[in-house]
Amino acid sequence: MGGKAKLDMGVHRAAIATSIVGLILASLWPIAAGAEELPCLKAASVAAGDTFTLTAPIEGTATVRLAGILAPLPPANAPANATWPLATAARDALLALLGDYCLRLVPDAPLVDRYNRLSAQIFRHDGVWIQGQLVHQGLARVVPGLDTGENIRRLLPLEADARAAARGLWADDAYAVRTDATAGRFIGTFQLVEGTVRKAARVGPNVYLNFGDDWRSDFTVVIPAKTLAAWARAGSDPMQLGGRRVRVRGVIESLNGAMIEAAEPEMLEVLP
User: Which domains are assigned to the chain?
Assistant: First the structure.
């Protein structure tokens, strides 16, 4: 009887998760509903799973970087100039998604980034959200940055669904979620890291989340003072994270052990 109850609960949870993913993808359609009234922007070529070129420039550039996501990059130990299957799969998927459709660019920050690329969420005229599709297929990871807030919060459940199903890059150990104990092996790379916060401390203006007994060598998440207002707006107080298990994402740096600077609240998820 107990086994049946557990099975039913598991099926129920899976159904809920599937419904949530469907709602997220469907809820974005109205955002792009007016695309037909705008100039028809089309892709001319695709350079990578998160970058393509328009047939005509906007603001002086035709290169588009898909905001909020990162296509698979070869691991550090991959041979130089070697073809990486997941990078190829992501590029091919983006090419197929863009097709000959009219596109709408929706920036969540300055449209042109510091590399002179158009940075935006991309929607087809039929309402398909390009970033959402790539993340849900497991062909991109979510990267909070200039494009944060609502878009990132909608992408995270899509990524979680792909990760749970081991789709795309999530089936490859090169992109596995790291532990706080192993994070130091991946300095200079973008990673997802999970662990339990031992202590949250304010040192000077910043907040530090320590994952071990020795802050000089253990994994740490630093939250810059200038971003604490954004954390408050998101309803999160990092000083209350002591004892909580979390998942943080970002480029791992080396500073008194492995460290990630969580400049955006969406970079850190509190786990059950």
Answer: 12-171 (2.40.50.90), 177-270 (2.40.50.140)
Torsion of CA 256, 258, 260, 261, to 10 degrees: 10
Contact between residue 54 and residue 100 where contact means Cβ atoms under 8 Å apart: no
> Which of these ranges, 17-26, 58-67, 241-250, has the smallest mean pLDDT?
17-26
Paired residues of 270 in beta bridges: 246
> Order of strands across the sheet with 245-251?
178-179, 190-196, 245-251, 268-270
**Structure confidence by residue, pLDDT tens digits, 79-106:** 777 789 999 999 999 999 999 999 999 9
Q: Output the pLDDT for position 111.
A: 84
Q: Rounded CA gap, 32 and 78, in Å? A: 39
Residue 12 pLDDT more than 90? Answer: no
Q: Is residue 164 classed exposed, middle or buried when 0-12, 13-18 and 19+ CB atoms within 10 A define those classes?
A: exposed
- Please enumerate in sequence order all residues whose Cβ is within 8 A of that of 120, keeping only pairs 6 or more positions apart, or say none: 64, 66, 67, 105, 106, 107, 108, 111, 147
Q: Alpha helix locations (H) across 35-164? A: 85-98, 130-136, 150-164
β-sheet bridge partners, residue 122: 105
Query: How far, in Å, CA of 98 to CA of 188, rounded?
Result: 31
Which of these, 131, 176, 138, lies nearest to 155 by C-alpha position? Answer: 131
